[in-house]
Amino acid sequence: MAGAVTRRIGLFGGTFDPVHRAHVALAQAALQALALDEVRWVPTGQPWQKARSITPAGHREAMLKLALAGEPRFVLDRIELVREGPSYTLDTVRALQAARPGASWFLLIGADQYAGLHTWHGWRELLDRVVLAVAARPGVAAAPQLEVLAHAHRVVPLPPMAVSATDIRSRVAAGLPVGDLVPPAVATYIDQHALYRAGTQPGAPSPSTRS
Ligand code: ATP
Hints:
Rossmann fold; six-stranded parallel beta sheet; 6 strands
């Protein structure tokens, strides 16, 4: 159709337990470098590759809302929170593409995920459906599998950021500050809801904290 402009959409999935500064920086760098119209943040419902028990979805979602506020091109997508069973990225991509025909899709991932992409459910179909947009991540030595490497990918220009959610959870459990590692409102939320403290299992947030 004359004059129609293809919408460019970034898809950024993760456990986000909690969302941290490197996540936000990665998404912002992708917005700029790939000229995206939006980044859809997709928190995992039931991550099929993580063995540890994860924080209830309501808390992870509430922290994401706080981190995403102020950037209208950031969109929180609950698709994997409402779907039953394991969270396969391929199922998410199929559903989102069916709902928005004609858009261009970029899958945003860190180098650690890139190196393990050949273990993902249906990864060959996934590679045919999206353009990978990969950010460097300090400490990642593994290279992607050759067939993954053969697919063109874009680079997200993120300066190395040695931040991980694992480290943040450990620091909170040890009573150390995390204010430099997460957005300020997320640090406050972690504190107010006593998340990640040693020996505690948080319940789901009360409805008033989820709006
Ligand atoms: P955890 O430590 O619990 O495994 P994480 O910090 O890796 O968590 P995830 O929610 O699992 O965070 O990651 C979501 C996405 O963000 C993944 O594609 C991951 O590679 C990427 N990512 C996370 N942290 C960084 C970082 N410091 N630099 C580059 N990419 C990152």
